[in-house]
Specification:
- The protein is α/β, with parallel strands linked by helices and about 475 residues long.
- The chain contains 14 helices and 21 strands.
- The model has no long low-confidence stretch (mean pLDDT about 95).
- It is globular.
- The structure holds flavin-adenine dinucleotide and nicotinamide-adenine-dinucleotide.
- Flavin-adenine dinucleotide binds next to helix 1, strand 2, helix 2, helix 3 and strand 3.
- Nicotinamide-adenine-dinucleotide (NAD) binds next to helix 6, strand 11 and strand 17.
């Protein structure tokens, strides 16, 4: 056989794929990235992180202007929603970023093929080009970075009009009167927030007893549920969706208590299916070359991201771990380092999560229920934003910072925040955990005044001693 002519061929141009491509380019590798969507950035940039945050930000601004200005001394006249412009602003953010990645590809010498890749043999990827025709590329190393897709709900076919996935929820052309969300995980709660702020009557049906997914600290989950309820979102937790059907102009959904009970029928104009995402490896031809998936469809890999065929690796949503863009990005850098240098670094105990509701929820490390389950002793320190001077000046005092630390060594085990800008504040917690800091390390670090970050410092003080302002 002729020798493979590229150092690395990447299938998928999402966060995992494009970051690996840029990193490989920077390392002087000859690299090709294949993406079928027509734009780079994958789910995150096109139909995930970025468009959702644009809608969350602008719907929050709209809601604030409508309901939260008078007591601040600002009186506004007629406030109107221009949904078309709201969507245009979202599209502008998306296209600016996706084009930026094309620029970075050029800058770093990455070859970009617009088309669908599949394995012909372990070193050869066939590419069916989007504009017709096909080509073949060969790689010494091949990276599977094909991401994930929405998990469908059996019997509820997604038409992106009345029964929608997150993709439809990011581009509705009207504000539905009744918006029902199946699944109170992160997607469900972010989209519930957007449409509730824009005027829909929103109900979230969640199978578990808590919202935010099982990974969210239960105390935090209970608190954010109360806050979101006050904002007008209805919750049915501990409730199972049985089935549903389209009616003339909407959808009927049958539910019952998860632990059994009387069935109930809920009606809505639009239903969002947000019960999770599953790895996407369709059409890759993995079976042909003997690469295996686990029972949840994840590509099976070892600690260096190698499949059974060691020069074929996989990172991002298509394999194990939380389906998060920053986790995919970390792995993308690490996998190129493994290929190039033989070592890489991702600390899976230290991957932050952020839910961009208002206030935001952010956490890193272990939850109280994790620690209890593992029988690990811990002590808790909390500090409420109602006692933080910056939160008070901002008139946004809901939420708190909660820290969990080892009672003997004081080493931090987990940090959980509900509060404005929690997503930015958690970076300090992530750094602390990454470097094995103690709560006293944080408490003895000077924090500028007045800032929300002081709540972080005071929670640390409360963990090993006492907070000053509470
Ligand atoms: C609504 C929503 C909001 C989200 N918000 C956040 C957030 O705020 N923060 C966060 O961290 N995460 C968020 N996520 C999750 C995040 O989008 C994913 O974790 C991330 O996109 C995973 O990156 P990836 O590269 O592994 O996969 P993807 O981004 O899915 O990229 C895979 C790419 O591969 C392409 N592809 C697949 N098969 C082939 C093939 N055979 N040939 C060529 N190309 C192929 C696909 O077209 C796709 O572009 C969100 C997800 C959704 C749905
Ligand atoms: N801000 C962010 O970081 C962000 C934003 C959006 C999405 N994401 C990622 O995208 C992925 C998918 O998000 P998601 O919210 O769809 O999944 P998820 O797994 O986070 O939540 C799905 C929820 O649906 C519930 N559920 C499942 N079946 C149900 C049923 N039959 N009836 C009622 N409830 C049911 C589950 O109990 C769970 O709470 C996640 O991995 C998430 O981390 C991240």
């Amino acid at each position: 056989a002729t020798e493979a002519d590229r150092d690395l061929v990447i299938i998928g141009g999402g966060v995992a794929g494009y970051v690996a491509a840029i990193k490989a380019g920077q390392e002087g590798m000859k690299v090709t990235c294949i993406e079928k969507r027509g734009t780079l950035g994958g789910t995150c940039l096109n139909v995930g992180c970025i468009p959702s945050k644009s809608l969350l930000n602008n719907s929050h601004l709209y809601h604030t202007i409508l309901h939260d200005t008078k007591h601040r001394g600002i009186e506004v006249g007629d406030v109107k929603l221009n949904l078309g412009q709201l969507m245009k602003a979202k599209e502008q953010s998306v296209s600016g970023l996706t084009k930026g990645i094309e620029f970075l590809f050029k800058k770093n010498g990455v070859e970009y093929l617009k088309g669908t890749g599949s394995f012909e043999d372990p070193h050869t990827v066939k590419v069916e080009l989007n504009d017709g025709g096909e080509t073949r590329v060969t790689g010494k190393n091949i990276l599977i970075a094909t991401g994930s897709e929405v998990t469908p709900f059996p019997g509820l076919e997604i038409d992106e009009k009345t029964i929608i996935s997150s993709t439809g929820a990011l581009s509705l052309d009207h504000v539905p009167k009744k918006f029902l969300v199946i699944g109170g995980g992160i997607i469900g709660l972010e989209m519930a927030s957007v449409w509730s702020r824009l005027g829909s009557e929103v109900t979230v049906v969640e199978y578990l007893d808590q919202i935010g997914g099982p990974g969210m600290d239960t105390e935090i989950s209970k608190n954010i549920q109360k806050i979101l309820k006050k904002q007008g979102i209805n919750f049915k937790t501990g409730t199972k969706v049985l089935n549903g059907e389209k009616t003339g102009d909407g959808v009927k959904i049958n539910v019952e208590a998860a632990k059994g009970g009387k069935p109930e029928t809920l009606e809505a104009d639009v239903v969002l299916v947000a019960i999770g995402r599953r790895p996407y490896t369709k059409g890759l031809g993995l079976e042909k070359i003997g690469i295996e998936l686990d029972e949840r469809g994840r590509v099976i890999i070892d600690q260096e991201y190698r499949t059974k065929i060691p020069h074929i690796r996989c990172v991002g949503d298509a394999t194990f771990g939380p389906m998060l863009a920053h986790k995919a990005e970390e792995e993308a850098v690490a996998v190129v380092e493994y290929i190039k240098k033989g070592y890489g670094h991702v600390n899976y105990g230290c991957i932050p999560a952020v839910m961009y509701t208002f206030p935001e929820v952010a956490w890193v490390g272990q939850s109280e229920q994790d620690l209890k389950k593992a029988g690990i002793p811990y002590r808790v320190g909390t500090f409420p934003f109602s006692a933080n001077s910056r939160a008070k000046t901002n008139l946004d005092t809901e939420g708190f910072v909660k820290m969990l630390a080892d009672p003997e060594t004081d080493r931090l085990l987990g940090i959980h925040i509900i509060g404005p800008n929690a997503g930015e504040m958690i970076a300090e917690g992530t750094l602390a955990l990454e470097y094995g800091a103690s709560s006293e390390d944080i408490a003895r670090t000077c924090h500028a005044h007045p800032t929300l970050a002081e709540a972080f410092k005071e929670a640390a003080m409360a963990t090993y001693s006492k907070a000053i302002h509470f």
